[in-house]
Amino acid sequence: MNVLIDTNVILDVLGKREPFFQYSTSILMLAAKNKISASITANSLTDLHYLLKKYLKNNEQVKNALKSLIDILDIVDITKNDCLKAFDLPMDDYEDALLAFCAKRVKADYIITRNIKDFLNSPVNPITPEDFISRFFAEKNI
Q1: What are the PIN domain coordinates in residue numbering (predicted)?
Q2: Cα-based distances in Å from 7 to 80, 105, 138, 140
Q3: pLDDT digit string (tens) for 75-85?
């Protein structure tokens, strides 16, 4: 299964944000074990760098955290065409529309996000980490 992960899911893991930490971590564990093909967009990586640098205030920790992510997740590039086509999607938030269009281009089965309402008009179905785990991996050992 091919999924594109929204930045908020990664932030749940890196920030150990409750009550979301467990299911978001499970998503990354599935990717690490090659049970799913998971990716984030290149701009999510730069957003994470910016936020982690403010939070951790330690460049080495930030670099190590992002390198760990890069080891288990694919990085989806963002093209000029993606940027233009995102404007055509009936979505209020351009950043979400861009992520949705990239998900469509890479043929993602789902966008894993905690903000389902932001992706209601997405060409790729959104799903929360909790719903994804319970729907596809409830019976299996992650």
Answers
A1: 3-117
A2: 21, 18, 24, 26
A3: 999 999 999 99
